[in-house]
Amino acid sequence: MPLVGAIDQGTTSTRFLVVDEDGSVVAAAQRPHAQHLPRPGWVEHDAAEILENVMTCISEALSEADLAAGDLAAIGITNQRETLVAWDRLTGCPLAPAIVWQDTRSAGIVERLAANGGTDRFRSSTGLPLATYFSGPKAVWLLEEVDGLRAATESGRALLGTMDSWLLWNLTGGPEGGRFATDVTNASRTLLLDLATLEWNPDLIEAMGIPAVALPEVVPSIGRLGLGVGHLAGVPISGILGDQQAALFGQGCHESGSAKNTYGTGCFLLMNTGNTPVPSSRGLLTTIACQIAGETATYALEGSVAMAGATVQWLRDELGLITNSDEVEALARTVDDNGDIYLVPAFSGLFAPHWRPDARGVLVGLTRFANRGHLARAVLESTAFQVAELVESIKADDEGIAGRVEMTELRVDGGMVVNDLLMQFQADLLGIDVVRPRVEEATALGAAYAAGLAEGVWDDTSAVRAQWTEGGRWRPNMDQSERERLAMRWSEAVKRSLDWS
Ligand SMILES: Nc1ncnc2c1ncn2[C@@H]1O[C@H](COP(=O)(O)OP(=O)(O)OP(=O)(O)O)[C@@H](O)[C@H]1O
Ligand SMILES: [Mg+2]
After folding, report:
1. Where do runs of H (alpha helix) occur along 195-239?
2. In Å, what is the CA distance from 452 to each residue of 27, 130, 234, 437?
3. 12 lines ligand 1 (CB under 6 A)
4. In the predicted model, is pLDDT for residue 24 greater than 90?
5. Mutation probe of ligand 1 site: the residue of 16, 265, 381, 382 with most atoms within 8 A of C-beta
6. Which of 42, 53, 153, 416 lies 20 to 30 Å from 85 when distance is taken between CA atoms?
């Protein structure tokens, strides 16, 4: 039976999964990596630590299942998006800490770029607003602040790439001929890719002052990229998808109108819009969903929320109210409702649909009555409220999508979907069913499907869709009037988070 490996290089941890022909997970290993927060608004990772974790996870998962690398028909890569690495082509060493997607240090650069043409200056080509979230401004920051980096990129010695490029290059040989490429989904998060041509836009590269020689080749998501070296010798690396696009793919949302929401560190709601990039008028991103080699790309509308599970981590790590993420539900259940307390976790500003870098976190509605339980509930509810805003925006935007059917249920995945209170509240707020698949690891599964499709493990996407089976369902159980009251209170709370920074 053919097996496929998937590297899921996430924001907080790295996983390696081995998946069989039925889409079942036969082996898995996971390793967290350090989150470096050297200053307010800065978030860094060590790319070398992450690479080591990838290799360790692969070894562990394979040996757990008594497998050898040669048993894998292919490996796919999925990764935290937008996070940027600069490294030396000759030594293979990172030249600076990786700047993580949540990092806001490039705010000044974004402001400077927006001074000439506004924040939507690049939107018609890239589908994105100018924001610190995307990789391009992070590259500009590195080029301006890291000694010697500009000269090293211009001479071809230093490379700039997102996590997928860093891993692919290393897995396929590193300094000895590693393939320097990025797939279209990751490239569509840089503010440098032209959505129509699927190539770097020379005008945007010039506007940001990034040396083109330092950027990876843009390739389709599904198709062989190279062969592994070392203890992955000869194993084809055959797919790359950004983590949210991988979850969309793994959830079987290959056709126009299908959507999923992933509840991880952040929350990311993506709806497939078929072969047309649909511009958003509601603060959503237009992005690439996937491209199979030799075919036209599919696009998606995306709503991104920066703080979802990360808010639970904050409750755990910074406030110390819980010791494990899964304790948040029991704590929230010690109270009957939110006690009119709302947390707006605008810790790195607000992403979709507001795009307000000036917003900061607020906790409103406090009285002497408020306790830890209310805070836990406000943390969980904040995720659901933010997702409800995304769904509203998608509904308003999707009129441009040909043949779209009404969103009648929401497919969900990610670490927070084990939280019953959150999922029920989400269904209540949306007024539609929330459904999770049997295999919760939709992100890794998507990468496995991508690589396996490229190598003929699965014949086509309909074979992949056929493997999706339901693992849980939450039905709405709330009056429309209560739903509206809560949404209104949330909007009031959001207003109070604005204009702070
Ligand atoms: N029972 C729970 N209730 C609420 N949140 C939870 C629960 N268990 C885990 N989480 C949260 O889920 C998040 C982890 O989910 P997941 O592993 O999907 O994250 P992720 O974003 O994919 O991470 P990465 O980016 O590293 O891949 C953490 O932020 C954690 O706090
Ligand atoms: Mg993840």
Report:
1. 202-208
2. 16, 35, 15, 20
3. yes
4. yes
5. 265
6. 416
Q: How far from 45 is each of 18, 28, 397, CA to CA, in Å?
A: 25, 23, 35
Tell whether the model's pLDDT for residue 309 goes beyond 70.
yes
- Sequence-distant (≥ 6) Cβ neighbours of residue 236 within 8 angstroms: 73, 74, 75, 224, 226, 227, 228, 451, 454, 455
Answer with the residue of higher pLDDT: 116 or 481.
Answer: 481
d(CA 215, CA 218): 9
Burial degree of 74 (CB within 10 A; 0-12, 13-18, 19+): buried
Amino acid present at 106: S
359, 501 Cβ separation under 8 angstroms: yes
What distance in angstroms lies between residue 416's CA and the mean position of ligand 1's atoms? 5
Dihedral over alpha carbons 460, 466, 467, 472 (to 10 degrees) = 140
pLDDT-derived band at 489, boundaries 50, 70, 90? very high
Looking at residue 402, what is its pLDDT? 45
Q: How far is the CA of 337 from the centre of ligand 1 (A)?
A: 23
- What's the gap between Cα 148 and its chain centre? 31
> What are 18's strand-pairing partners?
5, 27
Q: In the structure encoding, which two tokens stand for residue 40, read together?
A: 């307010």
CA angle at 410 for the pair 461 and 253, rounded to the nearest 5°: 15
What phi, psi does 48 have (nearest 5°)? -70, -40
pLDDT of residue 399: 61
Distance between CA atoms of residues 4 and 76, nearest Å: 8
Q: Are 171 and 232 in contact (CB under 8 A)?
A: yes
Contact 472, 321 (CB under 8 A): no
Q: What is the pLDDT of residues 368-423, one digit of tens each?
A: 999 999 999 999 999 999 999 999 888 876 665 544 556 788 999 999 999 999 99
Between CA 386 and CA 259 the distance in angstroms is 16
Distance CA 260, CA 279 (A): 19
Cα distance between residue 267 and residue 1, in whole Å: 35
Is the pLDDT assigned to residue 131 strictly greater than 70?
yes
Ligand 1 centre to CA of 43 (Å) is 17
Q: Is the Cβ atom of 313 under 6 angstroms away from ligand 1? A: yes
